Amino acid sequence: MLMAAASVSAQTATATEDRGYVQAVAESAFGNVTSQSYGAEAGFTVRPDLQIFGSFGHVGNVATDELSAAAQSIAGALSQLQSGTVSYSVNEPATFFAGGVRYRFQVASVLKPYVSGGAGIASVSKDVKFFINGTDASSTIPQYVTLGTDVTGDESALMITFGGGVVWPAWRQMIIDIHYMYSHISADTPISVNRAGVGIGVRF
Amino acid sequence: MRKSCLRLAAAAAVCLVGSACSKSSSPTQPSTTAGASADSGAATASVTVPRPVSPASGATIRNVDQPVTLVVANAVLTQSAVGTYTFEVSTDSTFSTKTYSKTGVASGASGQTSLTIDKIPAGTSYFWHARADGGGTTGPFSAARPFTIGPAITIDTATLVAPISNTSTGSRPTFTVTNATRSGPVGPLTYKFEVAASSAFSPVLLSGTANEGVSQTSFTPSTDLPPETTLFWRVTATDAANGVSGPTSLPATFVTTFAIDLKKVVYLNSPDVSGWPQTAVLSLVEQDGGGDGPVCMSYTDPGWPDSPWPFGGPDPNFGVYANQWYFARINGTWYGGAGEWIYRGASSCKAGQGTKTIGPDSGFGPPFSSWVPKVGELVGFMVSSVARNGPVKRTVDERSNVIVQPWRDTSLGSASIGRAR
CB distance A54–B30 less than 8 Å? Predict the structure, then answer.
């Protein structure tokens, strides 16, 4: 039965008569820190081997070394300026929207490999918190430090992304997309994000 | 259909790029400085407050120690930014009115930045604080730290009273000044007396300090000044507690009279007294070699103890406490010896010290025994605790200064006004 299903799928893929796809994506994001990412993507076939796509997603944390180092430096100074025990947390979620093209290799296999690239906008939000004796010190630290935009604020910046994957037409119109994507966000402090995950969707 | 999709994709890409690259900072903290705004393309640094180091909170600084130097431990700036500092001084903790302010002070090495401020009014309490600025961010001011500049104190020049104008003095003259006038909450004054052989006071021959007296202050040196020398002296009044000194006076001059070097004296029937401490002050010698040969010596009595008189007499408790001394230069050598005994209750005048009797009188031995002083010949006089060799035992071995003056004899033509001098 599996063989039969694969045969049907292969015939369908080879025909490249799909007009596009829609899929939900779940990924593991890794770089300076590891977090989770999720989103959705839709694509339209413009040529048998070429699709244009649009996607949006959210990465839980893309904090850079620089952000962590700045927070650590500030925490160290706070320890010198007051007697409480200082701790801190660093988080930098990113939400993005991107569009691009996907080139599908024309192969006879049931697994259809592709490469893709695109550009978009990523909105990153620096979320650094300091705690004195375990209590959020947001209201008290202004007497000790003026935080710069290196550790505060939201920023929208150009994001370019490229990567590749394989699409497996799992069952009827259902597809499974296993992929890896590299993204570069041109923020004040440039951010690199690697995402590897799976998408589940339908083609039409 | 496919062409439509391509157009749609191209339009979407243009919109994406065109709308990218915006930012907003947290509303809670940062203040960005001009020229490094959040839109300039680089993140601004975070800047901590600098930690005040000196002066300490509540410190009182003597006015004389101005100008004050403010010191902070450097602030921490992220992004390897280099900070500059602003220092402010005010009489109120809110710094509504600034007594002193300076910005752009370069960050110091070794973790601290300091600024020496201008002199500020004395006798006033102040607050100071500082902040750092760098990487596009102005940090917060440190907490206001109080300090006080002590009151202004002025001390005028003390007036030299004596000796002045080439007055002749002994080898240890008493220097006297009228106390310096002063203003402000002055502490106890001390007066530094300096003596030198030149008006430049380099080198200083002798220096001493005396606490202020009631209206005048005096100082008597404990060592001999060089004889027959014109010397200069001056004085400086000082409030040590507040670190304030008045101007040094202009110098005055005096001339020391001839003095005998006691270390070179040949002592006759008496001990070498050159090392005896000088505890009495001989101020006047009245002498006449004529008549019964009186020699009267006025001196401060330091309370030298009696030495029992071993030669008998009506009073078994009788004792003597001092000797008169005479010094004569014979054939180029100074000789000296203890002469008449002095006992309490009696006059300090002793008779029998005439021109022809002073030599043989006290058993000095030669050459004193045949010494006959000439009128005008310089003779030295001194008093000491019991000193003459013999059965009367010595006590504390102390002495006075030596006065050298010309020998007088009214029978040989010396003036008769007064008995001597």
Answer: no
